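Quick one - inputs below.
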Amino acid sequence: MSTPEATGQPLLELRGINKSFGAVHVLHDVDFAVYPGQVTALVGDNGAGKSTLVKALAGIYPADSGEYLFEGKPVTVNGPKDSADLGIEVVYQDLALCDNLDIVENMFLGRELHRGSVLLDEPEMESKARETLASLSVRTVKSVRQSVASLSGGQRQTVAIAKAVLWNSKVVLLDEPTAALGVAQTRQVLDLVRRLADRGLGVVLISHNMVDVFEVADRITALFLGRVAADVPAKSVNHTQVVELITSGRSGEMGIAPATAAQSA
Amino acid sequence: MSVDTQTPSPAPAADPGFSGDQRATTVGGAVREYADKIRGGDMGALPAVLGLIVLLIVFSAIQPDTFPSPRNIANLTVQAGAICVLAMGLVPVLLLGDIDLSAGVSGGTASAVTALALANHGQSWPVAVVVGVLTGAVIGLLIGIMVAKVGIPAFVVTLAFFLGLQGVNLKLIGSGASIPVRNETILNISNSNMNVVLGWVVAIVAIVLYGLLALRKHQVQVKRGLQHGPLALVLARIVGLALLVVAFTAILSVDRAPAVGVVLAGVPWVVPLVVVLLIVLTFIFSKTSYGRHVYAVGGNKEAGRRAGINVDAIRVSVFAIASSMAAISGIITASRLNGVSPDAGAGNTLLYAVGAAVIGGTSLFGGRGKVRDAVIGGFVIATIDNGLGLLGQEAYVKFIVTGVVLLIAASVDALSRRRRTVTGT
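Output:
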């Protein structure tokens, strides 16, 4: 299994990221790193800046200042297309699937394969979709040609994740993937998250659920009011400490100095 | 913590698949799937097909002498032509959940431009038709830009165009006047028939091509291990289509001249025109990325945007398609009426076309519907119009009946949508 210590070069690294929306300073000098083969959990209370950080990673809201490194090299990401080209895929909480299309059509939406210049290559797309689902050991989907409307919440999440890994992506960001799921479906999705990391991808898991976080995460990055309160191996902290980091930005020796925290409060 | 969750994933087998993966369905399975789909509220064109059969039986029973006669079937077909073309054009707009109330009148304007080009400017028919269709496309682009870029609801923009274009038509044609169409080719669309032999050749070629394509698709699906239906179902579809085409061609190949000594037989030219448009649009909307993107934006606009689809461009384009198809529909109507009057495309034209699309199974909520269904719906509407006309009913009855049918179709759409949200199919 992967070591909890941050070893080697991060796949993706943000240094000193700042982002403001008008007068509101949402992210303060945020450092964030994603390592290959590891699940990095991004935790924080509502309004801590998790979503903004993800959107900065995805290029939806480019950061005001700071460095963006991918595989050690500085890159500029100014739009979702730039991040997708680097191999960064985001699975949003609302999944962004089209109910009226089937699984294959959803997985290839916007990036359809063609035979010739205009004709859609349905056989190739269906085969590729099936291969991807098989490689993720998906057991719950009956047919790749069923419409997404007929899928359960867990299956939809599975399709959204499979869509993200279809493109040989290197980093996958999952925004609250288990928020709306039942026990068994949460289990399936967490297994899937672990398998992604085992394939060598860098996985970012955004979650409010500490049980989920401790179950799959290798590292935990806690945000508090737009600052990084802690970036630690999951093994080195316990549940209570993480909750303290989330709610007050400090836990014993860890966390933000009270004076600093007061500035942004 | 859970080290046990980290068991390595089993390597994909040589033939990739996942448990529960379903590829081939049997005839029974296909029937069951279809029944489930209908129960789940996804009825497609089924109500329209059943409705058409009922209407044909009822009108044939009430008017056994006139309604099922080859002459009336030919009339009905020509009447249906313009409705079908307009309805096919509306399908993409409805797929996005928008509406184009001005399509009928745009068609009137475009056909007036075509008629003027022919009558007053001495242009040849291809030039006149191209100018007319371009007029439609420009109107559609303007509507689309207002809707997508300015952000006015389509209902308001097209209502404004509905009024404004009637004024343009009055100005172009002059009140109380009419532009006659004398060009042979244009008149032939609705008033002339294919040679009987040619009609049969086209029918047979169409059946054979459809059969070959369907079998080829099935063969590829089997060979590559893709999901596919049973061969029996593919064959049944081919035979069903063949029977329909043969029966239709046979009826229209009977001499239907009212007087002895004259021969009037063959499939009206409007039929191959509708079929070609149907094939082209079906190809665009089911075999190209553009078509896929229209469905995607209609299903979930945000998902489309995140997938990198230019949502605004898609919205503009569907209005351009609708108005261009309306232009062709207007030219077909001008051919049938031998001219263009200032009220062309006003009145019930648009109601009929929207009714045709919705009756055929296109959802007013977007995302669902096929171009093919608009043609079936168009025949339902034309049958009602034609049948009630033969019964000697006054105009008010036609309006009320058509309005009621449209309401019923929209109710079926709304109720099945509710059912879909409940059952999640």
